[in-house]
Predict the 3D structure of the following.
Amino acid sequence: MSIWKELYDIFDKERSRWQQSSAGKQAISFELKANLGFLADALSSGLPQHAIIQGLECSLFEAKIKEGLSLSSLNRRTVTLKFIGEFAEFAKYVGKENCELVENAYSKIKSLQKLALAQPDGNYDLKIKSLFRFLVFLVAHLENRPLDQKSVRHTRD
């Protein structure tokens, strides 16, 4: 076997690994955005809490983790004070990387789903709204769009 063939095989294997990793990151990003869009629509339409909780998805995340996707392969951008702007509620995430934030988001979703199963008659309004705010923050961070009051006012109009 020639050295060129060996080098090509190494390159091809690495390219395939990179493409799988990239597809995994895109799938997780899509699922997070879909959950955010669903929450926004569900909250604005007054959907019952249990319907909202049941509508949240984690299947793509779980599948990619089972396939071996490392969350640390997400970009390593950290949250900064400049990014969060005037939103003090997100100060606790300053210095955290995207992988920690994504893991936190899915942990919040799974926890909410388990709570709703264990106590079907519970009031989860605050937890749902908190999850919505966190997903707004997370998606903005994944897309590198700093939070500011002007953009928040623009989305409310």
User: Anything to note?
Assistant: The chain has one domain: 3-14+25-151. The two ends are 65 Å apart (CA to CA). The chain has a mean pLDDT of 84. DSSP finds seven helices and no strands in the chain.
